[in-house]
């Protein structure tokens, strides 16, 4: 019974957290305006073009993952690696961070790849991605720091008092986000302690982590990494051209929002729902977009991109079952 409650909490808490943040962000929002824009006020060609980069990002991620697996002496099918990535993103919509486990499970099932070793390569990938986004963040901050200073000077914004801070809705949203991250870290710690009891598991993970030093084509690995994050950015940036009220925003403005949204999705909610909206809306207002239009942008873009994740996940599950009937590699 206790285990059942824990599993239920893991499923329910992220949804509740994301729902709470969405409720506060959109508590006075007129959803009919978003419906009008969705049906009659947006350029769907630009949206479809942006979705292409969302697919490419996952393709590059699948190919890069296969590259880190090769030094371990395993050569899963390229299609399986890509489809495993598709499944992982869709699985994370149900339970945040479940995708890291599910993609390793896919290769274990269809390509006989050691689960623990492949999990080690996932850890390596996450480390590389973390360093990449930190580098992007540093460059963005240096390039756009004057924008924030000008905004504060023009609006006369001052550092809020403690009383104002404690009565602000945004303070509690950030607080709940931090609580969510702490809960996630707690469960990760317990999970690692459990795995440490399994003989050989940690050693296999370490072997997977160290696979990066034996990757045969480092330039190709770097290219895949840059392509992944470049596609993520353009997946977001080209959606600006879908709407008249965001089409004027610069690429640097998009970069600021992209970085903010990337850090927001660390909060364990389904596909970053809630924290991502909060981050993008707040930063878009820095560039002169009013709160209603920023809310419409975040709601429509996040909804369509989430639908793409679901669609790719369903496709991958079907493709895996048809292309692995005989479990043959190439």
Structure summarized in a few sentences:
Keywords: Cell membrane, Membrane, Transmembrane, Transmembrane helix. This is Dolichol-P-glucose synthetase. The chain has 330 residues and is mainly alpha-helical.
Q: How is the main sheet built?
A: none
Number of domains: 1
Total E-strand runs: 0
Helix content: over 70%
Strand content: under 5%
Oligomer category: single chain
Please state the average pLDDT score. Answer: 79
Q: What is the terminal-to-terminal distance?
A: 45 Å
Tally the helices: 13
Main structural class: mainly alpha
Characterise the protein shown here.
With 330 residues, this protein is mostly helical. The chain has one domain (13-24, 31-323). It has helices spanning 2-25, 31-40, 44-69, 78-94, 98-110, 115-155, 162-166, 169-196, 201-209, 218-237, 251-264, 275-286, 291-323.
């Amino acid at each position: 019974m206790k285990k059942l409650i824990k599993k239920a909490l893991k499923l329910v808490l992220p949804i509740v957290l994301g729902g709470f943040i969405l409720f506060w962000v959109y508590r006075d929002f007129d959803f009919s305006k978003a419906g009008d824009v969705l049906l009659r006020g947006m350029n769907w060609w630009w949206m479809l073009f942006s979705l292409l980069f969302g697919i490419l990002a996952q393709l590059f991620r699948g190919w890069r993952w296969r590259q880190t697996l090769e030094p371990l002496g395993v050569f899963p099918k390229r299609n399986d690696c890509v489809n495993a990535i598709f499944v992982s993103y869709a699985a994370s919509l149900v339970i945040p961070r479940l995708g890291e486990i599910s993609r390793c499970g896919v290769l274990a099932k269809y390509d006989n790849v050691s689960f623990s070793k492949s999990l080690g390569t996932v850890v390596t990938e996450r480390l590389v991605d973390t360093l990449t986004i930190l580098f992007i963040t540093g460059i963005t901050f240096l390039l756009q720091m004057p924008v924030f200073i000008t905004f504060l000077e023009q609006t006369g914004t001052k550092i809020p008092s403690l009383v104002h801070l404690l009565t602000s809705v945004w303070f509690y949203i950030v607080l709940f986000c931090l609580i969510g991250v702490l809960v996630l870290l707690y469960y990760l710690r317990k999970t690692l302690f459990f795995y440490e009891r399994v003989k050989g598991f940690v050693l296999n993970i370490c072997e997977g982590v160290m696979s990066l030093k034996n990757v045969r084509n480092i330039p190709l690995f770097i290219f895949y990494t840059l392509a992944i994050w470049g596609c993520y950015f353009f997946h977001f940036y080209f959606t600006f051209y879908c709407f008249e009220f965001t089409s004027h925003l610069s690429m640097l403005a998009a970069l600021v929002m992209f970085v903010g949204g990337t850090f927001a999705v660390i909060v364990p909610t389904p596909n970053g729902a809630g924290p991502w909206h909060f981050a993008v809306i707040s930063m878009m207002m820095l560039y002169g977009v009013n709160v209603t239009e920023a809310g419409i942008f975040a709601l429509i873009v996040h909804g369509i991109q989430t639908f793409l994740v679901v669609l790719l996940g369903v496709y991958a599950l079907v493709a895996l079952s048809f292309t692995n009937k005989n479990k043959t590699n190439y």
